[in-house]
# Entry
Amino acid sequence: MTLDPVLAQIDKDLPQALERLKALLRIPSISTDPAYAEDCSRAANWLVDDLTSIGFDASRRDTPGHPMVIGHAGGSGPHLMFYGHYDVQPVDPLDLWDNDPFDPQIEETAKGQVIRGRGTSDDKGQLMTFVEACRAWKTVHGTLPANISLFFEGEEESGSPSLVPFMKDNAAELTADMALICDTGLFDDETPAVTTRLRGLLGEELTIEGPDKDLHSGMYGGAAINPIRVLSRIIASLHDDDGRITVPGFYDGVPELTNAQRAQWENLGFDAKGFLGEVDLDTPAGEAGRSVLEMIWSRPTCEVNGINGGYTGDGFKTVLPSKASAKISFRLVGDQDPHKIRESFRSMVNAMLPPDCTATFTPHGASQASTMSTENPMFEKARLALSDEWPRPAAFIGSGGSIPIAGHFKDILGMDAMLIGFGRDDDAIHSPNEKYALDSFHRGMRSWARILHTLAAHD
Amino acid sequence: MTLDPVLAQIDKDLPQALERLKALLRIPSISTDPAYAEDCSRAANWLVDDLTSIGFDASRRDTPGHPMVIGHAGGSGPHLMFYGHYDVQPVDPLDLWDNDPFDPQIEETAKGQVIRGRGTSDDKGQLMTFVEACRAWKTVHGTLPANISLFFEGEEESGSPSLVPFMKDNAAELTADMALICDTGLFDDETPAVTTRLRGLLGEELTIEGPDKDLHSGMYGGAAINPIRVLSRIIASLHDDDGRITVPGFYDGVPELTNAQRAQWENLGFDAKGFLGEVDLDTPAGEAGRSVLEMIWSRPTCEVNGINGGYTGDGFKTVLPSKASAKISFRLVGDQDPHKIRESFRSMVNAMLPPDCTATFTPHGASQASTMSTENPMFEKARLALSDEWPRPAAFIGSGGSIPIAGHFKDILGMDAMLIGFGRDDDAIHSPNEKYALDSFHRGMRSWARILHTLAAHD
# Structure
C-alpha cells in the first residue's frame, strides 16, 4: 500500500478533520469535577461512534470512574496499541480566557494558525491526529496498514484511578507489539521528537500542627511555636546551597548521563535562554554545574506546588496559626524508588520537628521514572518517518513530565512505548487559552500516516 | 456620691445589660472586610443611640474608613477619656465555630457562665463594661461622678488607618486628664491588672514573584525558580538557632529588665506551664534563656501570620507557581524603631533574592511599644479599687499585644493611659468560639464603677 495518496487525502480532508476535532472539543469532559461526569460520558460515546464510522470494532467500557474507549481494527503486520486521553483539565480561572474554552476557534497568530480551547493540545487534538491518519488510510486503501488497537482514557487529568485495574483485567486484549502514545511535544517548532525518558512523580502533602487552636500573636507570640515557621524551615532545608536535594538516600539510583547521551543532547542545540525567557526567567535555578536540559530531563527535583497557613485574605490578621501545610512533589529519574524516598522524606521531616509539633502526611501518587530502550528497530524507523515530514530531523529526547501510562504498559503488559507528540512549549496546557498549532495538527496526522506505513513494512 | 447603690444597681440590671451587649454583638462589624462596611456603620449608630439614652452628648464622626463615635457627659472632677473599639476580627474558619459567631449565647462551662460570639471579649463586651458603669451611676445619682468622654473606634482590627488623622484633627476635644482603655486582660482569673507596658507592632506583607505565569512542574521543574521555596528560605532565615531574630539592627533599643522588674514579675507566680498547656503546648518556643513572661512581655518577636502560594485546594496539582506571599509581623519593645526595622527587613529580603525573583512589600501598620509611668497617683488608686472588687490584689503587668492607641494618646494628646481590662487567656480572641466570662462582664462593670468613684474623689 502506498503512502503518497494517504498524505494527499489528509491534506484534502483537513477542513473536515478540524470540524470533527471541534465537535469533540465542544464537549467539556473535565474529569476531576463530578459536575462534568455526563460530559465525559458523551465524549466517550462520540469517540465510539467516530471509530465505528471508520471500521473499528469500538466499544465503551464502563469503570467505577469515567469510561474507557477501546477499538480494534484487524490488519496484517505488527499489532500497535495507540493511547490517548479524552478528558481535560478544569478551566479556572475562567476570566483569564479570551474566549469560551469549550467553543474552539481558529485564530491567526504571529506563529501561524492555531486552534484555541481547552483540550486542543492536551490531549484531544493530539489523539485525533492518530484517528485521522487511520481514517485516511482506510479511505484511500479500504483497510489499515497494520493491526491497530486504540485505547482512550477519560481520567488522565484526575489521577487515573481506574487505569491500572482496567489494564490488569483486560491484559490480553490490551497487549500488542508496541504502544504508541500521543501526549508529548515537539523538541522545537521544526524538530519532531520521540520521547524516550519520562520522570517519575512522588507527591506528598505535609501538615505541621502546633497549638491546638489559632492564637493571638500578641498574647502568645514569642512563647508559642509557629507552624508556618516550622514548615518554612523544613522546606528551606530540602535543598542545599548548590540546589541538591538533602533527603537522605535521595540520589540512590540517579544515573549520570553517558558521554554519548551528553553529546547527543548538546547537538540538539537546545535554546535554554529562550526556554527560560518564555516565562520571563534568565538563570537556571537547578543544581550547580548542570545544563538546563539535564535539569528538566535527567535530574530529579523537589518542588513545593502549594503552601497555605494562617490568614491569607485581604488586609492583616495577627494570628499565630495552629497549623500550616504544603504540597510537595519530587520528580524522579533512573531507578529512584518513590516508596523509599517517601519514607526517607517523612523520617527527615519528623527528625526536624521541634517540641510540641506534629507532622501528618498525605500521599498523592508515586510513580517511577520510565526510560525506553531504543534498541527496538521501530524507534529508529519512527524517527526517520518523522524526519521525512518535518523541516528538521527528529530527535530522541527526554521529558521532565510524568506519563504513568508508559510505565504501566511496560510493567503490566510488558510493552515498550513510543511517545510521539506534536505539542509546543507555548501551548498553555493546564492554563487559560490553551491552543494547538494547526501545523501540529496537520503534520501530526501526516506523521502518523508515515509511521504506520514504515512500521507496517516488512523488514 | 456613694458607691454602694451604684454597685447594687449594676447587680440588679445585669440581665438587661447582657441583652444590650447581645444586641451590639449581633451586628457583624468586621472592619477589615469591605463587605461589612454597612454593619460597621450600624454598630456605630447603635452606640450613638445607646450613649444618648444615658445622657451623653454623643455623635458619629465619619472618616475615610469606618466612623468614630464620640460622647461627652459633663461632671465635676477630673476629665477622663475612655477608649474602646466596636469593630471585630473576621470569623473564618467558620466551620470551627460551634455556633453562629454573630448569634451570641450564654453557655455554662467548667469555669462558669460565658457569653460566646465574635467580639464578646475583643472588644464589645469590654467597652460595654464601662458604658454600663456610667449607666448605673446615672441611674442612681442622676449624674456621673466625673467629667467623662468616650471614644469608640471602628478600625482597630484593621490597622486603624483613620485614627491618627482623626486624633490630630480633634486634639482639643479628645484631650483629658487621663485616658482609660479597656482592651486588655486580667492577670489570672482572680487577679485584676493594670497593664503598664505594651508591645509595638510592625506588619509587612511580602510577595515573591518569579516566572511570569504558573508553570507545569514537569516541564519547568528543576530549571525554573520556585517562589515558595524562595519565600520559605527567607522566612527560615529570620531566626537563628537560638530563636533570636536576624534582621540587622533589630535589637537596637531593646532594654534588659531591671532587677526590680524581674523580681516583681517573679513574685506574680505566673503559671507558664498552664499558660502553654492551655493551647496544648509544653515547651517555650522563644529565645533561649528567657522566661515565658519575658518572651511575651519584654522581648520582641517575628511571626508569620499567614502564607499562601500555588495550589492549595483538595488533591494535588503539579503547578510551579509564579508567586508566593506571606504576612509577617514584628512585636516591638522598648525604643525599637518600627520604621528602621521595616527598612532593614526589606533590605535583608532583597539581599537574599536569587536571580529572576522580585519582592514586593505592603506595609500593614507600624507602632512603637508603650511603657507607662506609674508615678501618677491615679494608677495606684485604680489598682486599689480593682483590688477591692476581685478575689486577689491587682498587679501592674505587661502585655504582649499591641494597642497603638495608648502610644497615640501619649504622643499626640500628651495623655497617660491606664489599660484596665477583664479578658482571660482562654477567651479565644481572634479565634473561633471567642467568649467572655460573665464574671468578667459583671465584675468589669463593678470595677469601673469603683474606679470612677476613686478617681473622682478629691485628694
